[in-house]
Amino acid sequence: MATDSAGTRTEAGLEGIRDGIAQGRFPAHVFNDREIFDTEQRRVFSKAWCFLAHESEIPNRGDYVTRYIADNNLIVARAESGEIHASLNMCRHRGNMMCKSEMGNASHFRCSYHGWVYKNSGELVGVPYMKEGYGGRIDKRDWGLVKVRTDTYAGLVFGTLDPDAPTLEEYLGGFQFYLDLYLKQGSSGSEVHGPPDHWVTETDWKIAAENFSGDGYHTPVAHQFGFNLGYFASSGSTHSQGWAASIPGKGHGIGLGHTPGFPPFAGFPEELAEEMRSSLSPEQVEVFSQTRTAVGTVFPNLSFLMQPFSIVPGEAGVRFVTMRLYHPIGPGRTEMYSWCLVPKDASDEYKQEAYRAYTLAFAQAGTFEQDDLENWARVTRSAGSTMARNIEFPYVMGMDSTPDPDFPGPGHVVTPYVNDSNFRNLWSRWSEYMTGRV
Fold first, then answer.
1. Is the pLDDT of residue 130 over 70?
2. Where is 37: in which H helix or E strand?
3. Cβ-based neighbour number of residue 202 at 10 Å
4. Which residue intervals define the domain Rieske in the entry (predicted)?
5. How far apart (Å, rounded) are the C-alpha atoms in residues 55 and 155?
6. For the chain, what are the domain ranges?
7. pTM of the predicted protein model
8. CATH 3.90.380.10: does it fit domain 174-435?
9. Lowest mean pLDDT, pick from 28-37, 77-86, 217-226
10. How far is Cα 254 from Cα 426, in angstroms, rounded to an integer?
11. Is the CB of residue 165 less than 8 Å from the CB of residue 287?
12. In CATH, which superfamily holds the domain spanning 50-160?
């Protein structure tokens, strides 16, 4: 589709989907559909705040990574001033890709076609044959790389293609309360531990985003061996306990699993737990100290998981955090990025143990990651079948739940942790974008 006007059938279908979500119904075909994918590119990913990088990936002047928003490849670079800039990775002369590497360090980028040169902040500074060829008709100030609006929260760098989008603070809408568990591990915060795992999977991005917005329902089945062998600090009988928290109207959601008798901040080194008690708000300490598992999604496609994991079954676990980005590259196809986040202040020994737990569990070849990817690929394949065009899925779990009046955190918070309320909020927000209401 060349314009922002989707076909009549699609427009009517999207309105029907929006109505169905309120009734706890969501169609199967949206998880593998060319028209849905094309519309998402224009109406969701071209308007939302999308995650680009963690600041610790580019700590030094000149450091850069390349990332995507929709189908636009961007250079995210720390300039010589120390500021972070995001620019379209496309020469303004004839459109060649400026930077071919996914990460590196460079003060300037030179086009390999005709040789135009840009600072890493995007300004055009060099044009071959400027005097002989252009005779003064090119003002370099007019031909810099195309800038993308950026903002940050606690080390996360986001970008949006929509100049009229709300501020990032407004967009997150209070979800920062929960993000702090992942991003403020200790008084100095969190950092990435090495480059991301990066691969392509035959999975629709929405399946992964939904799963990480709090799908505790699948864990005792898809990852049953984790309970049986003692990798988890919970059991199948208690795994559903905890809270499902979402920010109404924003799409963000998190599942907070709780195990009775679970020691406060278990899995963190004691000195790190003490730092968190002093640096987080009293309300955050009350929630996070009793949280076993925290699995959440920032709308549309950035997710986190924190989990204590016993590398030796039956022994005390170590906390690891995976941060992951689901970049859609086609209907039913996703480019996955997965990082391990560790506390900056932790010892090297703890960071290595946390990274080891992450690698064994949820890195690209992690055992639990494979459990999920096998299921997600099959869901995607089924959703693309002809009969799936007329099939809906039930999202009615917890339809009658009432908010927990004693929970100290923001948003719509219900019990138990196993609940569809976060998914209804996620798809409601998605439908607002897809129908052009945002």
1. yes
2. helix 34-43
3. 16
4. 49-159
5. 5
6. 50-160, 174-435
7. 0.95
8. yes
9. 217-226
10. 11
11. no
12. Rieske [2Fe-2S] iron-sulphur domain (2.102.10.10)
